[in-house]
Amino acid sequence: MKPNESAAINGFAKQNRDPSSVTSNGSYQNANSIGKEQKKKNKHSRILEADCTNLREKLVDRLKGSRFRYINEQLYKIPGKEAKKLFQEDPASFDAYHEGYRQQVEQWPMNPLNRMIKCILKLPKDTIVADFGCGDAKLAASVPHKVYSLDLMSNNNSVIACDMANTPLESNFVNVVIFCLSLMGTNLADFFLEANRVLKVGGTMKIAEVSSRFDNVNVFVSNVQRCGFKLENKDLKHSLFYFFNFKKERTVLKGSTNTKQFSLKPCLYKKR
User: Fold this and answer.
1) What is the value of pTM for the model shown?
2) Right CATH for 111-248 from 3.40.50.20, 1.10.1040.50, 1.25.40.20, 3.40.50.150
3) Where is the composition biased (Polar residues) (predicted)?
């Protein structure tokens, strides 16, 4: 090959080298080096994208948690009738509350509702149950018994929307009433008088509540018994929850002078 041909070929080769492969000092990188750099950039981009996604999810969760805590606090400060009105005016808040509630349940070492379900499963199949404050009606979906699921709003066809102090159930109709973490509001006497109305004499009222809500268990029991019930047994051994079984001893009409309104302490969930 002639010298001038060699120079031309070398010149052509230099002109066709990828300018992007030139480093800061003017030397050329090989293809492998460029490929490694690109992989690093792609990996870094994926990490940044994942971090942004995680941050967005955390912010959304915090906003949901804040809304849940706000609604939760309001429900402890007002009677059931006003709570029903609150959810009617803002139906989305009902879903937000129960979504936040489900997140809280996942963090508990036990779910009291599962204990209630086990108890109902041991009862005769013809037992009629009223679940006061049923949420998403998990109890009804978990047992073969007839369950009337009651809550302030209905998020599915199996839930009857009503004030817990004024349900559409007939008097002396059900065998068991359930209050599972649903004793919210300032008018608990109204709830228990309604439970007394719908229960048959000798029927059972089962209660599960957060233990920190009780200042004095004996005072609570005394208040419930004024509504026509007799305490059969209680379980205070669990660190987070208390469980009570009451029997309807007699019928007590609403408006009775022996019953006064009472409430439990609010259950305030911590920020996480």
Assistant:
1) 0.74
2) 3.40.50.150
3) 18-35
